[in-house]
C-alpha cells in the first residue's frame, strides 16, 4: 500500500471517529435535556396535585406531547419533544424554563450572531461560518433568516431606546466609549464610536441604560445621550459616575446632572500612566499604583500616591502629570460603601461585556448602517445582561441614596 493510500485511510478513519463522537455527544445531550424537561413537567404537576375541581378531578394534568422541535445548539441540532400540560386553573399557563415556547436556538447562538457581525462577518457568509461552528445540519440560520433576525432586533432596539424611565432610579453609572470600527468606512464614520452607559438600580441589579453612537466621545454626543435620558423621564442622576478621564462625558454630566460625584477609572488611569514609562519600570510602577486604589483608607491611599510622585517625578514627569491631573476624582470611591469599591473603582462592567468584540481589524466588503451596528451591540449587551449579578453589599444602596455620609467605606457614625 502506498503512502498516499495510508494517509487517505488514516484521514478517513479520523473523520469517521470524529463524526461518531459528535453523534454520541449529541445523543447524550438530547437524552439529558429530554429527561430534564420531563422532570420539570412532573414536578409542576406534582406541585398542584391537591388542587381539584368540584368533581374531585385534578386541575393540572399531563396532556400528551407537543410536536417535536429542533433546537440549534453549539453541538449541532437537537430534536426534542416537550410534554404538554393541561392547566385548568384560571389564568394559569405552564411555561418551561428549560425549553421556552417558540425557542429555536439556544441563547448562546443568539449572542454568537451579533458577536460575529461585530467581528466583521458579512450576512452572506454567516451560513458558512455558523455551519463550521454548529455543524452542517444546523437549520434556520440561512442568510435570509439572519436578515430577518436583524430586522426584528432593530425593532427591539428602537423600542428599548425609547422606553419610559420615569420609574427608574440609578445609584451608579458606568460610562465608556467603545471603538468597534465596524462597517462604517466613509471618512466621517471612521471617527464614530459607540457610547455606552450601564447603571445600578436601587435593588443592586446592574442593567444597560443607554447605547448610542457618537463622534469621538464628544461632549455634544454625551450631552445628547444624557439629555435623552431626562427627556424619557429620568428624574435624578446617579450618585456616582465612573468613566475614563478623557471622556467628553464629564463635561456633559456636569451640565445635565451636576450633583453627581465623579470617579475616574483606575484601569484606564493605570494604562495611561504606564504608557508614559519604559517597559522595564512598568511592573514596579504598576505595583505602586495598585497600592493606591487597594489601600484600606483614603489617608493610606494618599500616602501611596505621594510616594509614587516622589519616586518617579524626576525621570517620568509625564506619567506623574497624568496621575496628578485627576487626583481628587481618583479617590472618590472612598466616600461610598466599602462593599461597593470593587464595582466602582473602574469601568470593568462595560469593558468585560465587550472585551471579545471591542476591536475588529478586517473590514467586510460592504458597509452596514449605524442602526445595524447599534442593534448588534444592543443585542450582545442584552445577552450579557442576563448573567449580570447584583453588586456586593446592595443592602447599603438605600443609605447612599439617602445621602448618608461614608468615611473610608464605613457609615460616618460607625467610623466615629
Describe this structure in words.
With 416 residues, the chain is an alpha+beta fold. The chain folds into two domains: 1-105, no CATH class; 168-402. 46% of the residues lie in helices and 15% in strands. The strands form four sheets. It has a five-stranded mixed sheet, sandwiched between helices. The protein has a two-stranded antiparallel ribbon with strand order 1-4. A hairpin with a 2-residue loop joins strand 10 and strand 11 (410-411). Helix 4 packs across helix 14 and helix 8 (282-293) runs antiparallel to helix 9.
- Tell me the distance between the termini: 88 Å
How many beta strands in the DSSP annotation? 11
Strand order within the widest beta sheet: 7-6-5-8-9
| Major β-sheet profile | 5 strands, mixed
The figure for the number of domains is 2
Which class of secondary structure composition applies to the elements?
Answer: alpha+beta
Q: Mean pLDDT, nearest integer?
A: 79
Proportion of residues in extended strands: 5-15%
Radius of gyration: 27 Å
Please tell me what the overall shape is.
Answer: elongated
Number of helices: 16
Q: Approximately how much helix is present in the residues? A: 40-55%
The run of helices and strands is HEEEEHHHEEEHEHEHHHHHHHHHEEH
Return residue spans where pLDDT drops below 50 for at least 5 consecutive residues: 13-18, 359-367
Quickly describe the structure.
The chain is α+β, with helices and mostly antiparallel strands.
Blueprint of the fold:
Layout lengths: L2 H45 L12 E6 L3 E5 L2 E5 L2 E5 L19 H13 L6 H9 L8 H19 L8 E9 L13 E10 L4 E10 L3 H13 L8 E4 L5 H8 L4 E4 L1 H9 L7 H12 L4 H15 L4 H8 L2 H4 L10 H4 L3 H7 L15 H16 L11 H6 L3 E2 L2 E2 H4 L1
Parallel strand pairs: 5-8, 8-9
Antiparallel strand pairs: 1-4, 2-3, 5-6, 6-7, 10-11
